[in-house]
Amino acid sequence: MNNEKVLVIIPTYNESGNLKPLTDAVLKTIPTDILVVDDNSPDGTGLIADGLARSEPRIKTLHREKKEGLGKAYAAGFRWALDNGYDFIFEMDCDFSHKPEYLPDFLEKIRDADVVLGSRYVKGGGVENWPLSRKIISLGGSLYARMILGLKIKDLTGGYKCFRRRVLETVDFDNLITGGFGFQIEMTYRAIRLGFKVVETPILFPDRVVGKSKMSRKILFEALLNIWKLRFSKVIPKALPAGK
Predict the structure, then answer these.
(1) What are the structural domain ranges in the chain?
(2) Sign of CA dihedral 131, 10, 185, 107
(3) Strands 88-91 and 198-202
């Protein structure tokens, strides 16, 4: 994208079997750098990331002392991205549920948007190899959040995203309301409240093949509870009417 800098942030915790194949696939797909944000994985994922960074200058690493949730990991990555002058910043899981083949489509759509969100629930999107119970929970969670927050975005819990720099510059990462998977809802909600253009692009979302899912009932219910905090928060700013 001309001289604009692109960064893919990949948070990791026990992803030793996925990290190298994923970074290889990403770097073959679009011109980008990669930031691996590792939360002191006991399986040595951080050491693997350091080894990859030594052999490939487009791969960077950021080590955190402990696992504190997806939101704080991404917040650390976003700060790093802003400090290092990136213009387009991706969120991407390390388990191949976010397919690298969609990255070019995100970059095309971000030309006319501020946030591009990979959506399982628009035409052309979907999930693969999910049990019925997981489909119901995911769809129900998105619908629940949409109703409470008054949003039209169909996949509010999705975590495959691309942000323009100017969106992230509006966020006080020390005052995020949610952690875990609720963070995904909060970031989209903040962008829409400030008047940024958020668009959805269809993706197929397969279940992970290697490793163990980080989702739990506790994380899910915490996210659903925090939606009410978002709804009544006075911390999240709102765009002023035109001319004000």
Answers:
(1) 6-231
(2) negative
(3) unpaired
Q: For residue 97, give every residue at least 6 positions away whose Cβ sits within 8 Å of its Cβ, in sequence order, or none.
A: 205, 206, 207, 208
Instruction: Give the single-character DSSP code of 186.
Output: H
Q: Give SS3 for 38.
A: strand
184: left (phi over 0), alpha (psi -120 to 50) or beta: alpha
Look-up of token digits 């969100």: 117
Query: What DSSP state is assigned to residue 215?
Result: -
**Which residues are bridge partners to 89 per DSSP?**
7, 163
pLDDT digits (tens, 9 = 90+) for 72-108: 999 999 999 999 999 999 999 999 999 999 999 999 9
Q: Which two tokens stand for residue 115?
A: 């946030």
Would you state the pLDDT for residue 230? 85
Rounded to a whole number of angstroms, the CA Rg of the chain reads: 17
Contact 153, 121 (CB under 8 A): no
- Where the chain has pLDDT below 70, the residues are 1, 180-181, 208-221, 223, 234-235, 239-244
Please tell me the predicted confidence (pLDDT) of residue 141.
Answer: 78
pLDDT in the model for residue 244: 35
Q: Which fold has domain 6-231?
A: Spore Coat Polysaccharide Biosynthesis Protein SpsA; Chain A (3.90.550)
